[in-house]
Write a structure and sequence with these properties.
- This protein has 332 residues and is of the alpha/beta class.
- It folds into two domains: 146 residues, Quinone Oxidoreductase, Chain A, domain 1 (Alpha-Beta Complex); 139 residues, Rossmann fold (3-Layer(aba) Sandwich), CATH 3.40.50.
- Helices cover 25% and strands 27% of the residues.
- The longest helix is centred in the middle third of the chain and has 23 residues.
Length: 332
């Protein structure tokens, strides 16, 4: 059945500038797919901000609706795996990049992108995590799977006020780790301590990458920054320390020496939440609904409406946001 709905639409003009408007679309405008979902909540990620400003590394075809996260209810399904009324989560893959995303009130996607929402999470809690929470859960899980335990010493989280960083701080604190949060926002110290950071440091202290090794300090690292920050973190790890890397907030590359790897057995593990298997996703979401579930995840959340998305995305690009921004997709 054809439905009208509201969506944020990014348009590209002939002079290659981009504009953002809330427009009425219909489900006939959506791409092919086995599952039609009425979106209850979406959330904002840095990738959405890039898509909304025409970054060609994220989105190339316009008009386009961004939004790499969505939670909602199945309205129609051609897949035996999903029935009308199922509460589901869709994150990453091509959603909000080349495929119309969660900043529209409906999405239509392949069944292979869809997972049933764990009953232990409400819809808004699911988007309080979103792709950022999925990524954080994968990173924390990698630390645990590789022997990092709370009794081995402090764990560093870089980019700690962002979506991935703030969720990682909260999960690690819940699990009993001594968390050091690195940030360039001096005004965020109280926020970071309120979500579990034992110590907050200026990110500038991690920019010295001049030596081949530094004093052993971190038992584990969650890094979303790359560049000299990642290099410093690797060189400052304890023997058998583990570094998980998932982002490029600071740079797209980094330089390090071989010594942390051959003298201390440091392990660097890359984390991907875009194309990882559904089995990996389901394990991470079950952790978010169970052992990793933060007692008050909503303290990380600013809830907004679709009409407020453009301003929030621009603030994100300017480094003015923190925590998680969840978009209530119901009509105002």
């Amino acid at each position: 059945m054809r439905q009208e709905f509201k969506a944020l639409v990014i348009e590209k003009s002939e002079d290659k500038t981009f504009s953002r408007h809330i427009k009425t679309r219909t489900t006939d405008d959506l791409p092919a797919g086995e599952v039609l979902v009425k979106v209850a909540y979406s959330s904002l990620n840095y990738k959405d901000a890039l898509s909304a400003t025409g970054n060609p590394g994220v989105s190339r075809n316009f008009p386009h609706t961004p939004g790499i996260d969505a939670v909602g209810v199945v309205e129609a399904s051609d897949s035996a795996a999903f029935s009308v009324g199922d509460e589901v989560i869709v994150t990453s893959y091509d959603l909000g990049m080349g495929t119309a995303g969660g900043l529209g009130q409906y999405i239509r996607v392949p069944a292979a992108w869809v997972l049933k929402k764990p009953a232990e999470l409400s819809a808004i809690e699911a988007m309080a995590y979103g792709t950022a929470g999925l990524t954080a859960a994968l990173m924390v899980g990698a630390l645990l799977d590789n022997g990092v335990t709370a009794d081995k010493g402090p764990v560093l989280v870089t980019g700690a006020t962002g979506g991935v960083g703030s969720v990682a701080v909260s999960i690690l604190a819940k699990l009993g780790f001594q968390v050091t949060a690195a940030t360039g926002k001096a005004t965020s110290t109280d926020f970071l301590k309120s979500i579990g950071a034992a110590e907050v440091i200026d990110r500038a202290t991690l920019l010295d990458a001049s030596k081949p090794l530094f004093k052993e300090h971190w038992a584990g690292v969650v890094d979303v920054v790359a560049g000299d920050t990642l290099s410093n973190a690797i060189k400052s790890c304890q023997y058998n320390g583990v570094v998980t890397a998932s982002g490029l907030v600071g740079a797209v590359d980094f330089t390090t020496s071989i010594f942390p790897f051959i003298l201390r057995g440091v392990r660097l593990i890359g984390i991907d939440s875009v194309e990882c298997s559904m089995a990996v996703r389901m394990k991470a979401w079950n952790n978010l609904a169970g052992a990793f579930k933060v007692d008050d995840i909503m303290q990380l959340v600013t809830e907004i409406r679709l009409e407020q998305v453009e301003e929030s995305l621009m603030n994100m690009l300017e480094g003015k946001s923190h925590g998680r921004i969840v978009v209530n997709m119901a009509d105002s």
